[in-house]
Amino acid sequence: MRRQSFCGLLASAVCCLLFFAGCAGKLPKTLPLSPLETQEASQLWSAFLKNKRPTAVDADIRLSWDVLGSKGGIGGTLQAQRPALLRFAATDPLGRSLILAVSDGRTFTLVDNRSGHVYQGRTDSEYWRSYVPETVESEDLLPFLGGFLREGEALGVKPAQDEDSGGFWYVWRDARSISHHVLVERKSGEMRRHLLVDLQGAQVLDLRYADYQRDAKSGVVWPRRLQISGEAVTGDLAIQVEQMYSHAPQGAAVYRLTPPAHFTVEQVP
Hints:
This protein has 269 residues and is an alpha+beta fold. The protein has 5 helices and 15 strands.
């Protein structure tokens, strides 16, 4: 029972940040490009890839979900740093800590303050993969949240025009045979949507970005609203940035956690 109650909270909070889910849908409709449009699409893509990539994020967020009959929301503080560091603290409306999770990309520690229980394990474990699909790698977290791509991604991109002419779609297949479909808006040059589709045509991940804002100090552009759906959990998720603090790296110590001595520690397989 203790693990069941924890899993319910975990599924609606921490793993919602890593695990983007919903149901499979139709691929976006596109139109072929003229030679001039092909040149424009190439220039837009080149400019998009040259944009400054965030190395970290530190923000207060509001996570909302409507998944499998469960509907609600939770506030928290999200810190993430390339290549794969994560810290997420969920709080109740009174600001009291509910759960605290940290990961270095290889291992994780989850503290349930309500029950005084700690879960520890590896991110390639069966336990972790029961929440986070293999298509979501630890290094994907920051790019998926921030609406950008990892360096070296998007090889062999094929462009097409969005049916409403608001931007161009760029399609490629990665080393895991996942097909990526990225929509970049013509006017702003920002990513508006990122679809991941498996070999069976299922939309593993569908990310929709809105309300980008530029940080005056770092020059980094970050979406304040992210809507999430996909294949693994039927429903919808949303992340709203309520307060952005910094895009400066905080150091590895922020992502290390020593559980309270009186808490029960469980090593999960």
